[in-house]
Design brief:
Structural class: alpha/beta
Largest sheet: 9 strands, mixed
Order of helices and strands: EHEHHEEEHEHEHEEEEEHEEEH
Radius of gyration: 19 Å
Number of helices: 8
Number of strands: 15
Shape: globular
Strand content: 25-35%
CATH architecture of the domain at 4-85 and 129-185 and 274-313: 3-Layer(aba) Sandwich
CATH topology of the domain at 4-85 and 129-185 and 274-313: Rossmann fold
Length: 317
């Protein structure tokens, strides 16, 4: 026997949560004021990469769940927008394998000849990369094809939504600062450049040694994404020319094939940052589960957090 459930929020967390609940037998309604291609998720580079510097078994479990789901979706790349690329992460000092690669047998140390100047070590492994817009559209198509309903409206009272259906998952990201009264949330602005794919660019490369200026070059099927910035508290949507120039210079230093990349557009996204991801039952409203605060790891954690949120909501009734 199935029961109704509501998911609030139409980004990658909301869509994957809605699909997970649907697969467990719930009749799901997704509430969102914006279609998926207008959400923060659509501006993401969407490369699988657990970026935490300290070991976190819960983070890794959730990321690994998403890794397997995304790898399966990559078997139909034209339909899903997900492909597998070789990711290489560079480090300024000699390092052992990043903690999140230790259970991934395909991870290997890159050869010193592959290091750009200024880096002492690097690790490579195959990871899923999504064309964010195509991937979000695929998730939405799967959800509605299986009977899911999408209502475009702004939710202002989570308790009222629980009263309607009895089961709600809140995936509103930064909107939870008001909806859930969570004052620990903050916005971190990220700037990415969508570029024409340079000839010879094959793979993905990351240097996260500067947390305010993460550098990444991400190959996609028809373009490339170069980044980026992590600007706490900034809400401006205009991108200064100096920021674009800095990103291009850093990316060319990391990956010479990216030099001279033609910028098609500068994209600005606002990541909902929190000290830790919140996936838990609401302490005051029975039937309400929260799933937000992923920062820049929405794609990486999506399916794992969705499964945990569905577990917390319980079986349909």
């Amino acid at each position: 026997m199935t029961g109704p459930a509501t998911v609030v929020g139409g980004g990658v967390s909301g869509l994957t949560t809605a699909l997970e609940l649907q697969r467990r037998g719930h009749r799901v309604t997704l509430l969102t004021p914006e279609l998926p291609h207008h959400t923060t998720s659509a501006a993401a580079a969407a490369v699988w990469h657990p970026f935490l510097h300290r070991p976190d078994p819960v983070h890794l479990r959730r990321a690994t769940t998403a890794l397997h789901r995304l790898a399966a979706l990559s078997r139909e790349p034209e339909r899903t927008g997900v492909r597998v690329r070789t990711l290489t992460e560079f480090f300024p000092t000699a390092t052992e394998p990043p903690w999140w690669t230790r259970e991934l047998p395909a991870a290997h140390r890159a050869r010193p000849a592959e290091h750009p100047p200024g880096y002492a070590s690097a690790w490579s492994l195959p990871v899923p990369v999504a064309d964010a817009t195509r991937y979000l559209a695929h998730l939405a198509e799967e959800f509605t094809a299986d009977g899911g309903r999408v209502e475009r409206r702004l939710v202002s009272d989570l308790a009222a939504e629980v009263a309607r259906t009895g089961a709600v998952v809140n995936c509103t990201g930064y909107g939870s600062s008001a909806l859930a009264g969570d004052r620990s949330l903050s916005l971190v602005r990220g700037v990415l450049l969508r570029c024409a794919k340079p000839e010879g660019l094959r793979g993905c490369w990351i240097d996260d040694s500067d947390p305010r200026r993460p550098t990444r070059v991400i190959e996609r099927e028809h373009d490339a994404v170069l980044g980026g910035t992590a600007d706490p508290g900034l809400v401006a949507t205009a991108v200064p020319e100096a920021t674009v120039a800095d990103i291009l210079e850093r990316c060319a230093r990391l990956v010479p094939a990216a030099a001279g990349a033609e910028v098609l557009e500068a994209k600005v996204g606002f990541r909902p940052a929190r000290g830790s991801v919140r996936v838990e039952r609401d302490p005051y409203i029975p039937g309400l589960v929260h799933n937000y605060g992923h920062g820049g790891a929405g794609f990486t954690l999506s399916w794992g957090c969705a499964a945990d949120a569905a577990d917390l909501l319980g079986s349909p009734h």
